[in-house]
Amino acid sequence: MINRVLIRAKVVQNLYSYILTRPERTLSSALKELDVSLSKTYELYHYLLRLPVELTHIQEMRLDEARNKYLPSEEELNPNMKFVNNRLVKALASNEQLEQYAQEHTVTWNDDPILERLILDKVIKSDLYQDYMAAKDDDIAADSALWQQLIKQVILPDENMADAIEQRSLYWTEDDMELMCQFVCKTFRRIADGEEDVVLPMFKDEEDSEFGKNLFSATVTQMPENNIIIDDLVQESRWDKDRIVLMDRIIMCAALAEMRTFDKIPVAVTLNEYIELAKNFSTAASGKFVNGILNNAVRKLRIEGKLLKQ
Question: What's the pTM value of the predicted model, to 2 decimals?
Answer without folding.
Answer: 0.92
